[in-house]
Structures are given as C-alpha cells and as structure tokens.
Write a structure and sequence with these properties.
The protein has 293 residues and is an all-alpha fold. The protein has 11 helices and no strands.
Length: 293
C-alpha cells in the first residue's frame, strides 16, 4: 500500500512569505515616515506663523491698542474676567463658520469630481465647458455676489453657491489633470480586455489621480473657509464673517484679532491634517506624495 508523500517545496515557495513580510514592513515604514514628516511640517508651520506674527507687529510698531499679539489673544480667551463669555462667543461664531465651510466644501468638491469625470469621458464636453468655467473663474466673486443673492436669497443655498464657486475651479483643474495622468499602456491594457471609457476611468484614471485629488482637497479647505466668510459677510450674516465687520466700528480689536487667529489656526490645522493623511495613504499605496516623501 503506497502512502502519499508530502509535496516537495520548490525553491521559491519558502521565499514568498519572506517577501510579503518585507513588503509589509516597507509599506508600514513608509507610512510611519510620512506621518512623522507631516507632524514635523505641521509644528514647523505653527511656529513659523507665530514668529511671523510677532515679528511683523514688532517691525511695524503698531499701537498695542489696535494690534494684538499671541499673549493678548490668549488673555482674551482664557485669563480675563470675561474669558468664559469671550470663548462662548468666539467658538460659537467659529462653529457656524465651519458649518458653512463644510457646505461649500462638499458642494464645490462634488461638482468638481463629477465635472472632471465627465470631461474625462467626453473630450467634446471638456472642450466646450472648460473655457466657460475658466471665464467664470476670472469674474471676481464679490462682483457676482449680488446676482447670487438675488437668485438664491439670503439663505443656506447662497452659502453653498458662494463656497462652492471658491472650491470648484481649483479642484476641477487639479482633478482633471490627475485623471489624465494615467499611462497610455494601462489604458491600452483595459481596452485589450474589452473595457470602455467607464472602465478606464474607474480602474485606471481614478486611482492614478489620488495625488491630484489630495492636492485639490488641500487647496479647497482654506478656499471653503474663505467662501463661508464671504457668504456670511455679504449675504447670510452670522458666524465670524458676519460679526467681524462690526468689531472695528466698536473698537473691539481683541475680538477682531481673536476671530482672525481662530480662523487661521483652523485652516492650518485642517490643511496639515489632510497633508498627513495624503502622505500616509500615498505611502501605503506605493505612490509618491507631492511633498517629495
């Protein structure tokens, strides 16, 4: 009676798990390095902004009654007798502005993704609409604001439109460029296997456009906050944009500077968080981030 012999392992089978482990370690190391570099950049940016703030005030020698430094803002929020009321007011306005920013960000980015995808699927539509989009981008938003307000009223729809316009055009250009970055050989391979334009978009163009997509998101975050501030100032009121115009006539310079500082800090934090996520994701996917990592 013959007994079954165990299969003889080939010379490459023992190496396969080692190769997989090595690849995983390299990916994890790259992601960790990307995260660490992003944190260093984030801290360096905050330190640089603080140094620039203090340095400009010292060089220009502006009156302390008007110009407020980091210590003044800290005292306004945390040490003055009215600090609790100040925090409630400032962070309440900031929350409203961030809500408006999110509406504009989502509106603009979704339209940009859909528009770039349509442009990728149809060159005729791209050639017809891209010049129109660039023409609209050249019109100052503050000049378009009265028309937007007349059409949509002083409501949340105006916030979505104004914020979406600020986000849309830079995101549209970046994502469109990213979708075109796929190699011709990869597209030819999809065609050989019977794939059409939609298959090439989904399987090749979209994964290849990740660096450009993250760049669009990074640009869009401060743009969305700017759009929200404009919408609040020109149309809907509320938030930091709606209240900041009243601080100067009332000589509330501490509130004015604190509002500007909070918006700036939030913009820097969100920008750098997206940068860190981008570096980690691209490192795990074996793609080079635009920061050079």
């Amino acid at each position: 009676m013959m007994t079954a012999q165990p299969p003889i392992a080939g010379p490459g089978s023992a190496q396969k798990p080692d190769i997989q482990v090595t690849v995983r370690k390299q990916v994890a190391s790259g992601a960790l390095k990307a995260f660490g570099w992003g944190m260093v950049t984030f801290v360096g940016t905050l330190v640089g902004v603080l140094a620039l703030w203090v340095g400009v005030l010292a060089i220009l020698n502006v009156s302390p009654m008007i110009a407020k430094g980091p210590i003044d803002v800290w005292n306004y929020l945390f040490t003055l007798p009215a600090a609790e009321a100040n925090r409630e007011l400032m962070f309440g306005n900031l929350a409203v502005t961030l809500g408006h920013s999110l509406i504009g960000f989502v509106s603009g980015l979704v339209v940009a993704i859909l528009g770039a995808s349509i442009f990728q699927l149809s060159k005729g539509i791209e050639h017809a609409l891209m010049p129109v989009a660039m023409l609209l981008r050249s019109v100052p938003l503050i000049a378009m604001a009265p028309v937007i307000i007349m059409i949509f009223g002083r409501d949340i729809a105006t916030v979505a439109v104004i914020g979406g316009i600020v986000v849309l055009f830079p995101a549209l250009v970046n994502i469109s460029f990213g979708l075109k970055s796929a190699s011709a050989q990869m597209n030819d391979l999809v065609e050989v296997y019977g794939g059409g334009s939609w298959a090439k978009l989904r399987k090749i163009a979209m994964p290849s456009s990740l660096p450009a997509f993250f760049a669009a998101v990074r640009i869009s975050v401060p743009g969305a906050i700017t759009g929200a501030l404009l919408a609040e100032w020109l149309a809907v009121g509320g938030g930091i944009g709606g209240s900041i115009a009243g601080y100067i006539p009332q000589a509330q310079f501490s509130a004015l500077w604190t509002s500007v500082v909070l918006v700036t800090i939030v913009s820097l934090v969100l920008y750098n968080v997206i940068q860190i996520v981008e570096n980690v994701v691209l490192a795990r996917m074996g793609m080079r981030a635009q920061t050079g990592i």
